[in-house]
Design goal:
By secondary structure, the chain is α/β, with parallel strands linked by helices. It has 21 helices and 15 strands. The chain has helices at about 15-20, 40-50, 55-65, 75-85, 105-125, 175-185, 190-205, 210-220, 235-250, 250-265, 305-315, 330-335, 345-350, 355-360, 380-385, 400-410, 420-435, 440-470, 475-485, 500-505, 510-515; strands spanning about 1-5, 90-95, 130-135, 150, 155, 225-230, 280, 285-290, 295-300, 305, 320-325, 340-345, 365-370, 375, 525-530. The strands form four sheets. It has a five-stranded parallel beta sheet. The chain has a five-stranded antiparallel beta sheet with strand order 10-9-8-7-11.
Length: about 525
């Protein structure tokens, strides 16, 4: 096996705001707290230790013990839950939706990044404990985003009626999905493991939250991973002061809007706040809370509250109040002794909008760490890249640019018209000097003719390149086929494929390789040749 690292910036798949964050660009300094390095973690430990109470630790540990009550819990996970009661214990957290059968590959990369960071910090700060957390997005309601996964180029989909928090969804109907998936797998030893994991997870548990907990626990339990379900009354009770503040003062809207006004001068905005960033959660609905005419209304329902009524409802029924994407990060940081959130580029982009909000409600803002990102290349694919003299870095070029570069390199014909265009410009320069001695209409005609002829040369250059690509069709086809195989849909495979693709081929050794090779604080893109 061979491992190659390249800067995230050189893949072409990460946003400018992530480039600048990794480079610690001064434009972003006001929007995060400590940077993800050892000095940053030292500072973060001091901040969080002061702010997280022993009472909250007890409530958290008790709630987690209860959540695992009907599950086979590993000794490592049980020990980590108990460690949360101690003031010298901190969490490193990642989160993800309840995607069917873990969804895209990067789900694994997120969690291994989290586990490995805990181990690295334990080595660097031996007097502290660091516990990996997977936060299940059980309260999300975007079912269409999670009801499928891709296996071997095929989309395996769970069709059912939408409505309410996905974690509460019944697993009824997943027998049909299992049969479809099972038919794709074959009968190898690794296939039997995948079938068993899917069937035990989804066919032996009543709701999607429990099914997801089982599957994630089975994959990661030896590493002490703790799985948190935020749809929990004890945990929501800890968050009720912030819910009440949001309802009465629209706290997040004011702070986040001000941050966005500054950020959008340089960057694309990831999410926008509403006046109230809370949902009201029922058995089969999750709808926005809107304040109009001195009344709190639950969108698309007949439910209304006065101010006193809704504050009483928060006290008596905290499970009914669900934070949206703006407030969910705060909920996480309120109930966990958390130092760092590990997420993808899109996630961290919206976290960067929240720093002022955290300051306003006096909750420490966590370190933000871009998760490990991985491209797997087989030995066969690597040999093909070598034959085509395509480097690992070049592999990530836009397909049009990659093919153009290789075709130009492989031809003896002069395809670059730059010198011809410069010569043409020099000829028109002399002509324009003459034109300036006449009237403006003649000068305009000369300028127009120059633009026309340069445009003509540029079009001829493009046509010549197209003709050369046709002449080198075999090379073009080989490059296209190989890049599409490695980067499906001209995208990172981690966003397209499911872990079962590689587990079927390599079994548990694939997971062992990820555990061994992912280095979260290295802050680089990883290419694995296996």
């Amino acid at each position: 096996m061979k491992v190659t690292h390249i800067p995230f910036q050189e893949t072409g798949f990460f946003s400018e705001i992530m480039h600048h964050y990794l480079e610690q660009n001064k434009n972003l300094k006001p929007y995060y707290n400590n940077f993800p390095n050892l000095e940053g973690f030292q500072n973060q430990i001091i901040e969080k230790e002061k702010s997280f109470s022993s009472e909250n630790r007890t409530i958290l540990a008790n709630a987690l013990t209860q959540q695992y009550d009907e599950f086979s819990i590993s000794e490592a996970t049980k020990e980590n839950i108990e460690l949360l009661r101690k003031k010298e214990t901190f969490t490193i957290t990642t989160g993800h939706q309840l995607n069917l059968f873990t969804g895209p590959l990067y789900f694994l990369y997120k969690i291994f990044s989290t586990i490995n960071l805990c181990e690295e910090l334990s080595d660097k700060f031996p007097d502290k404990n660091f516990v990996p957390i997977y936060w299940m997005a059980t309260e999300d309601h975007d079912f269409e985003e999670i009801n499928y996964f891709n296996f071997d180029g095929k989309k395996v989909t769970w069709n059912r009626n939408d409505g309410g928090a996905v974690g509460r969804f019944s697993t009824e109907g997943l027998e049909e999905v299992f049969q479809v998936f099972s038919n794709h797998l074959g009968n190898s030893k690794n296939a039997e493991y995948l079938k068993n994991l899917f069937s035990k997870g989804y066919l032996e548990h009543q709701n999607l939250a429990d099914a997801t907990r089982f599957i994630v626990n089975e994959i990661f339990k030896t590493y002490g991973l703790i799985i948190v379900d935020s749809d929990d009354v004890a945990l929501k009770n800890l968050f009720t002061p912030f819910i009440k503040q949001e309802l009465q003062e629209e706290t997040s809207f004011t702070a986040v809007t001000k941050s966005i006004e500054e950020l959008e001068k340089n960057y694309k905005i990831q999410v926008n706040p509403r006046e109230i960033n809370l949902f009201y959660l029922g058995d089969d609905f999750r709808e926005r809370i809107i304040f109009e005419n001195d009344t709190y209304k639950v969108n698309n329902t007949e439910i209304t509250f006065t101010k006193d009524e809704i504050l009483a409802e928060v006290t008596n029924n905290p499970l009914a109040f669900s934070p949206n994407v703006i407030m969910r990060p705060l909920y996480q940081e309120v109930i966990l002794p958390n130092l760092c959130y590990i997420g993808g580029g899109g996630e961290l982009a919206y976290w960067l909008e929240l720093k002022a909000y955290f300051n306003k409600v006096q909750v420490p803002f966590p370190i933000l760490l871009l998760r490990n990102s991985v491209q797997v290349i087989t030995n066969k694919q690597s040999r093909k890249l070598d034959k085509l003299t395509i480097s690992k870095k070049k592999l990530f070029l836009n397909q049009f640019d990659l093919i153009s570069q290789k075709v130009i390199t492989n031809t003896s014909i002069e395809t670059d018209f730059s010198a011809k265009i410069e010569f043409l410009k020099s000829q028109f320069k002399d002509l324009k000097e003459v034109a300036q001695k006449t009237d403006v209409t003649f000068l305009n005609a000369v300028n127009a003719q120059e633009r026309k002829q340069i445009k003509g040369l540029e079009n001829l250059e493009k046509r010549l390149l197209k003709a050369e690509k046709r002449r080198q069709k075999d090379l073009v086809d080989r490059i296209t086929l190989l890049q599409n195989e490695i980067l499906p849909n001209e995208s990172l495979e981690e966003r397209q494929r499911n872990f079962s693709n590689y587990y079927l081929e390599y079994g548990a050794s694939f997971l062992a390789i990820l555990k061994e090779e992912l280095k979260p604080l290295q802050l680089e893109f990883t290419i694995l040749e296996i």
